[in-house]
Amino acid sequence: MEPFRVLELYSGIGGMHYALQASRIPAEIVAAVDVNTVANEVYTHNFRTTPLWPKTIEGISLKEFNKLSFDMILMSPPCQPFTRIGRQGDVSDPRTRSFLYILDILPRLAKLPKYLLLENVKGFETSSARDELIKTLEKCEFTYQEFLLSPTCLGIPNARLRYFLIARLQTKPFPFHVSGKILTDFPNQDQADSERPRCSAGLMEVGSPLPTKETVSSSDDNDGHSSKRDFLFKLETEEELERKQQQDNNPSLQMLRNFLQGDGEELSQYFLLPKSLLRYALLLDIVTPSCRRSTCFTKGYGHYIEGTGSVLQTEEDIQLESVFKSFESLSEEEKLMKLSLLKLRYFTPREIANLHGFPSEFGFPDKVTTKQQYRLLGNSLNIHVVAKLISLLVG
Q1: DSSP one-letter string for 70-100
Q2: Over the range 249-284, which residues count as b (16 or more CB within 10 Å of their CB) and which as e?
Q3: What share of the chain is helix, strand, coil (3-state, %, to 5)?
Q4: How many C-beta neighbours within 10 Å does residue 189 have?
Q5: What is the DSSP string of 137-159?
């Protein structure tokens, strides 16, 4: 079987490339295209022999596209026009221009690709850009299936709900195709298993409203004693706390410790500063190595704190209850003393890369700063999820 010739658009740091490798289908990347200078440095660092085009997609002519003669397109267009915490400019956002250019080029290619895979944020499925994509695919007689999937489907303890579309050039639909429906799990899995993690059910994604203090006030029972829900950690509802506990007790999800760096490694730079602890204590999503969940890591992780990803409690013997009980009545000095017992730190870029499925040989050039690493990883994707979708696409 001849290797598939694959065009990787918006190549970033190579998530699609690694997913293609993990899918184990015979393939070669004929060109990777991205305009981000730092991302391109990381890509070249890891894929030295792959042709990388450091240019805008709009700058590639129809003739150049035809010359590549590719069988498959893998792409992850800019998500900012569709994210729930962005301006949601959709097709009017200048960052969508390159994607619309691809849709214009596709029907005019001398040879249509056999396969296409697209990844984007939740929200893309309701956009005008998605509607234009579907129109183009139908015009070119592709059959397609849409998904909303998170790595939790595969037992990975990280919530990262994303939109995916797979399409192939044939009239016969996928065997798992459900017309007019976005699938929220991988097909051919045991739907009767109630303990199996669901991709989108109950996942609190970035952009979800934070509970207010009114929703976490304490209550007394009829005997005048405080109930077992006398207080809740941070600003979270009782339902949110119970959901987290259910995830942590779900054996089909791996523990975070499987993705962490060793204790012997130098990690002091990742511990939260005292001013950050005091300011954001009630907003932190705190997890331990034995937890089976973590929130979505965004490009602002390590720079901003609120809503950008979980932080790790490295002192597992300390109970959160003992730190946060009557927390707001304490002085700043007392608060800091209690918080310091938890030894809270950020996940390292390597650990986030592990959760995303990047192999151990993946690395960053020395000149790429930690802040840049977090930003690039926040814009990346989960390799395991995409690899499984590529297998479904070609299978």
Answers
A1: -SEEEE----TTT-TTS---GGGSGGGHHHH
A2: ebeebebbeebbeeeeeebeebbbeeebbeeebeeb
A3: 35, 15, 50
A4: 10
A5: HHHTT-EEEEEEE-GGGGT-S--
CA distance 215 to 209: 12
Taking CB atoms within 8 Å and a gap of at least 24, the contacts of 78-82 are 78/10, 79/120, 79/121, 79/124, 79/379, 81/127, 81/129, 82/120, 82/121, 82/123, 82/124, 82/127, 82/129
| Angle at 164 (CA atoms; ends 89, 44), nearest 5 degrees | 85
Taking only the tens place, the pLDDT of each residue in 350-384 is 999 999 999 999 999 999 999 999 999 999 999 99
Among 54, 40, 47, CA closest to 17: 47
Q: Which residues form the catalytic set?
A: 79
Higher pLDDT, 214 or 158: 158
User: Which residue shows structure tokens 């297998």?
Assistant: 391
Q: Which helix (H) or strand (E) holds 29?
A: strand 27-33
Q: Is 13 helix (H, G, I), strand (E, B) or coil?
A: coil
Of 170 and 48, more confident: 48
Q: Name the token pair of 372.
A: 């840049």
* Single pTM value for the model: 0.88
- The torsion angles phi and psi of 209, rounded to 5 degrees, stand at -65, 140
The β-bridge relationship of strands 286-287 and 115-121 is unpaired
Give the long-range contacts of residues 219-227, CB within 8 A, separation 24 or more.
none
DSSP assignment string, 190-242: -TT-TTSPPSSTT---TTPPPPPGGGG---B-TTSSBPTTS--SSS--HHHHH
Other Cβ atoms less than 10 A from the Cβ of 225: the count is: 9
Question: Which pLDDT score is estimated for 212?
Answer: 35
Contact in structure between 335 and 281 (CB atoms under 8 Å): yes
Q: How far apart are CA 182 and CA 137, in angstroms?
A: 16
How far is residue 384's CA from residue 380's CA, in Å, rounded to a whole number? Answer: 12
Gap between the Cα atoms of 288 and 272, Å rounded? 15
Identify the band that residue 218 occupies on the pLDDT scale cut at 50, 70 and 90.
very low
Taking all residues of the chain, what is their mean pLDDT, rounded to a whole number?
86
Residue 183's nearest CA partner among 168, 205, 202, 198 is: 198
DSSP string, 336-379: HHHHHTT-EEEPPHHHHHHHHT--TT----TTS-HHHHHHHHHT
Contact 30, 5 (CB under 8 A): yes
